[in-house]
Each structure stands twice: as structure tokens, then as C-alpha cells.
Specification:
The complex is a heterodimer of chains A (361) and B (198). With 361 residues, chain A is of the alpha+beta class. Chain A has helices spanning 2-8, 10-15, 20-32, 34-51, 60-72, 79-83, 87-115, 154-157, 193-202, 233-236, 249-253, 274-284, 297-302, 319-329, and strands at 125-126, 217-219, 226-228, 260-266, 288-290, 309-315, 351-360. Chain A is built from 14 helices and 7 strands. Chain A is elongated, with a radius of gyration of 45 Å. The chains are: A alpha+beta (361), B mainly alpha (198).
Chain lengths: 361, 198
């Protein structure tokens, strides 16, 4: 039994892969057991014979046959092998290409998502006159006059007073321009205050005659139909020519909320009825109050739930006077008017929009 | 680097040259490895013609697939792995071909064939040692042919070609313990066959 176990270990013993204790046990057994020692000697002689096997040379015709066969095959790689790289080269290249493609698609999609962000809901005008809240609805405006950016083909051809070209079905040509709006007597009038800063920033290098440009159309919130912007009825009825504001290209792509916020601080004693006084100032400047969604004329009368802000829409040239009137009602604290980067342009050409935030001292 | 090349040239340079399409590169690879591959096939198959056929298949297979060889192992290891598989396939295909087998190390024929094996060193140049070596070689070849094919190829790789147990396990894709036990069993079987002379 012991001899059988020892003989099973002879290869490992001879290769030196046995643990030291086991190797010592095998050595001791081989010294004592003649039979196992003979088996070990025979194994050693066998391995020596194998190790000393004489070398064998391949016959010369082997090389000839191999070279003949390989010459008959295409010396170059087969076409299908030329087309496909080895796997160890191909796989890293394909992985890198997949990552690049993913990053490219991701980047383009992110850019497009940003570019086609839906515009803010169109503010509805609540004019002083009843029924004026329908003014911005295109279907209720009989004559729509829109402006085109200067890069459109129709712009250079537009003459003074040119009306919007109508299509056969009565649909307005949104590319048309209205030269009358920008050729009024106040076109070159100096404008001071935030509006001047905004307009000079929006088109710093253009001559003043090229300034009056606003987007001619805006995407609806449903993003499915193009809704031309028309001036409110009350503005159309204004005798004074409108001053149009240039809009940066970014507004065409990513409309910003109209207007800017103005903070008005008043004493607690002056707070009651302040909204109405602001509204009166706006109306005195031929402006109007922009109704917040969910509120109606009754809210304005009752002052509840009138928000702590009043949104007014004014003719573009009355900004300075509006601020003067606001200072009569209260105090505009430092920082109460944001910087010039916030455009005061209104929702329609020739108008500006302010949100007056009321703060009680 | 593969020092196995008999011409002393590093085989990886030959491989690189072959991949670059340089003429003569594959000739160099064949010259560097043909003796080892042929000897292995001859000892496995005990038939010169079959050994030459299989060796030719091995090199043609290598010629077609060298682009996919990733040099994780030595080129000689890769070639001998192909050779072992091809030899085992041949042996399995044999049914009634035992009578056709020609002993590899038969005595030289009268028509002047090259000697079956060459003496390994100057001491063996002595005529008495040559005869002794030839006789031992013949006996050993016959004893190897009596081993079962699986024992034969593992013994040739281990105790003739000098591969480690780990290399054989990787080549045959079997566990290391299985390799050890198979080698031991093959050695003991061969010892029994050679018992009258060892």
C-alpha cells in the first residue's frame, strides 16, 4: 500500500514539485524499499532515453512542398483579409469610433435641444380699451405688419409703406417688411436710459437706419405652427411712430422673457392702491397693463389677488418718462433696475415691457 | 523573442517581416521550425509520409492564420499545438492503417537513404555508440508507438520538447493537475514497456 502511494509520487519527486516533508519521506522509502528503488531507477532511465532521443531533420522536400503550396496560394493576403483588420487591431479602433460617434450624436442632440427650446407663452395684452386683449391674436388682426431681419431677401426691396404681401389664400407672407415703422420722425431721436443701452448693445455696428429690426415670427408653444406677431391694436392706433428695437440672433433661437424687472420700494403707508397708480402712469403714457394669467379685470379693480408685481407695456419712447413717474411713486433702490444686458423689448415691435416689483420698506 | 530558431535569427523578427509582406519571411519561419515540427509529427504518427503531410498542413495553416497569431505564446508553441491537434486527428482517423505504418527509425536501407537519426555529440561518433544509439532509438520509437495517443503527445511535449506542465495545460486547455497525472501515468507505462532494457 505504501509502495503504491510512493510510486504515484515518483514523477513529482523526480520533478522536485513535492513538499519538502513528502520528498524526504519518499527518499527514506526508496532507501529502504528495493522494489520501489528499482521502479524509480527505471523511470529515470526512461526519461533519460526520451531526453536523449536523437534529433530528427525534416526531409528537404518538406520545405519545397510548403513553398510550392504557399506560392500557389495568393502571395498576398486574400481580398477579404485585406478588407478586415485583425481582431486585436480592429476591436480597439471600433470601440474608439463608437465612443466618438456617441459623443458626436450626444453633442449635436444637446445643441439642437437647446436651440429649439420652446418660447415663453405669448403675453396677452390687456389694453385700457375693452377687447384689446385680443390684439395679439393673428386671426383677429386685419392687417398684419411684420418685420424681417435684414438678411432676408425681401428686406432690401421693401419700400416705404410696403404692406405685407398676401398669399392667395389670404395667409400673410411673414417675410414682408414694414418700412413705415422705421422711417418715422422719431427714428433718430436720442433715447436715454435702459432702452438706449439695450438698443445700442443689440446692434452696435449698424447704422441707425438699419436698426429697426425685430423677429418677424415666433414659434408657438405647441411648436407646430408659426404664429406671426402682430402689434397690439392700441399700438397700431397710436399716432406717434414706433421705435423698433433690434433683437440679437439669440432671441430668434432662444426667446427670452420679455421685459425687465424693476423694483419699486414704497413706504407702508403708500402701499395701498399702488398697483392702480402704476397702471394710471402706464395708461398716461399710452401704455397698458399686461394681465397675468388667471387674473381678470376684476382682479385689478379689487386689487386681490393682484400679485406683488405689475406688468406694464409701453410705447418704446416712453421709458424715460415711465421711470420718472415711478420715482414719484416710490424709490428705485440701487440694483432695482437690472443691467443693460436684460433687454426691455416688448412682445411686439415698438413696445417695451416692464415688470414692476413692489417692495414695502 | 523566440530562441527556438535553428538559424539563430530571432523568430519574432521573421514574424514581423512576414506581417509586413516581405518576401522570404515565411521561408525563414519554415526553416526555423520545420525540424522540430516534423520530429514531433514523426514520433506521434510513426510514419514518415504522414508526418510530412501533417507538418506541411501545420505550416500551411500557420501561413493562412499568422495574422491572427497574437504572440501570447511562442511561435514554436503555437506550431506544436497545431501539430498535436492535427496528429491526434490523424490517429483518430486511422482505422485499419496500422499495417501501413513504417517504423521511423528503421535501419538504413541499401539504396543509400540518409541515416534515421544523427548522433548528438562527438562521443557518440564512435561506431559502437552509433549502433547502440540506433538500437535504443528504434526501441524507444516502438515503445512510444505502443502508448495511447493522448499519453504519447503529452509525454513528447513534456519530456522531449521540454514544455512545462503549465504550458501544456494552457496548450491543451486542461487543468494542471490533469496534466501532471497524465504525464506520470504515461511515464510509468513507458517504463513498463521499456523494462527489459532500462
Amino acid at each position: 500500500m505504501e509502495c503504491e502511494r510512493i510510486q504515484d509520487l515518483l514523477s513529482d519527486y523526480r520533478d522536485g514539485s513535492l513538499p519538502e516533508s513528502e520528498s524526504a519521506a519518499v527518499s527514506a522509502h526508496l532507501r529502504e524499499c528495493r522494489k520501489c528503488a528499482e521502479v524509480a531507477d527505471g523511470l529515470e532511465n526512461t526519461l533519460r532515453l526520451l531526453r536523449d532521443l536523437p534529433p530528427v531533420q525534416a526531409p528537404p522536400e518538406l520545405l519545397e512542398r510548403i513553398l510550392r503550396e504557399t506560392a500557389e496560394e495568393s502571395p498576398a493576403k486574400p481580398l477579404w483579409k485585406k478588407l478586415f483588420l485583425p481582431a486585436h487591431v480592429k476591436i480597439p479602433i471600433e470601440a474608439a469610433a463608437a465612443i466618438l460617434l456617441f459623443l458626436l450624436v450626444y453633442g449635436v442632440q444637446k445643441k439642437e435641444t437647446t436651440a429649439v427650446a420652446p418660447p415663453p407663452p405669448a403675453p396677452r395684452l390687456e389694453a385700457a380699451a375693452p377687447g384689446a386683449d385680443k390684439a395679439i391674436r393673428p386671426e383677429s388682426t386685419p392687417a398684419r405688419e411684420t418685420m424681417a431681419p435684414p438678411r432676408t431677401a425681401a428686406a432690401p426691396k421693401a419700400g416705404p409703406g410696403r404692406r405685407v404681401a398676401k398669399r392667395g389664400d389670404g395667409e400673410p407672407d411673414v417675410r414682408g417688411t414694414v418700412e413705415a415703422n422705421r422711417s418715422g420722425p422719431q427714428r433718430g431721436a436720442p433715447v436715454s436710459g435702459p432702452m438706449a443701452a439695450a438698443s445700442s448693445h443689440a446692434a452696435p455696428s449698424q447704422p441707425q437706419s438699419a436698426l429697426p429690426v425685430v423677429p418677424v415670427q415666433r414659434a408657438s408653444t405647441s411648436a407646430e405652427r408659426i404664429e406671426p406677431v402682430s402689434p397690439p391694436a392700441e399700438n397700431a392706433g397710436m399716432g406717434a411712430p414706433q421705435r423698433l428695437l433690434a433683437a440679437p440672433p439669440s432671441r430668434l433661437l432662444r426667446p427670452l422673457p420679455y421685459g425687465r424687472e424693476v423694483t419699486l420700494e414704497v413706504a407702508a403707508a403708500d402701499r395701498p392702491g399702488l398697483e392702480e397708480r402704476i397702471a394710471e402712469v402706464a395708461r398716461g403714457l399710452r401704455g397698458s397693463i399686461v394681465r397675468e394669467p388667471g387674473t381678470g379685470p376684476a382682479d385689478l379693480a379689487e386689487k386681490r389677488p393682484f400679485p406683488e408685481a405689475v406688468r406694464v407695456q409701453l410705447p418704446a419712447d416712453s421709458a424715460e418718462r415711465f421711470f420718472s413717474e415711478l420715482r414719484n411713486l416710490g424709490t428705485i433702490p440701487p440694483g432695482g433696475v437690472p443691467g443693460w444686458t436684460d433687454l426691455p423689448a416688448g412682445p411686439s415691435p415698438g413696445t417695451i415691457l416692464y415688470t414692476v416689483r413692489i417692495r414695502v420698506r | 523573442m523566440d530562441p527556438g530558431g535553428e538559424n539563430g535569427r530571432p523568430v519574432d523578427l521573421l514574424l514581423e517581416a512576414f506581417r509586413q509582406g516581405k518576401p522570404g519571411a515565411f521561408d525563414g519561419i519554415v526553416r526555423a521550425h520545420q525540424d522540430r515540427v516534423y520530429a514531433f509529427c514523426a514520433r506521434m504518427l510513426s510514419d514518415r509520409e504522414e508526418a510530412m503531410d501533417v507538418a506541411q498542413e501545420v505550416f500551411l495553416s500557420a501561413y493562412r492564420n499568422l495574422d491572427g497569431f497574437r504572440e501570447e505564446a511562442r511561435l514554436s508553441t503555437w506550431l506544436l499545438k497545431i501539430a498535436a491537434n492535427r496528429c491526434l486527428n490523424r490517429i483518430r482517423q486511422r482505422t485499419t492503417r496500422a499495417s501501413r505504418e513504417v517504423r521511423l527509425f528503421e535501419p538504413e536501407t541499401q539504396d543509400g537513404d540518409a541515416p534515421a537519426f544523427q548522433p548528438p555529440g562527438p562521443e557518440e561518433i564512435r561506431p559502437d555508440r552509433v549502433v547502440e544509439n540506433r538500437e535504443l532509438g528504434r526501441i524507444l520509437a516502438e515503445a512510444l508507438a505502443r502508448l495511447d495517443p493522448d499519453s504519447r503527445w503529452i509525454l513528447l511535449l513534456s519530456d522531449v520538447e521540454g514544455f512545462t506542465n503549465e504550458e501544456i495545460a494552457a496548450m491543451a486547455e486542461i487543468p494542471l493537475g490533469t496534466v501532471k497525472s497524465r504525464i506520470h501515468r504515461a511515464r510509468m507505462t513507458l517504463r513498463k514497456i521499456l523494462a527489459p532494457v532500462v
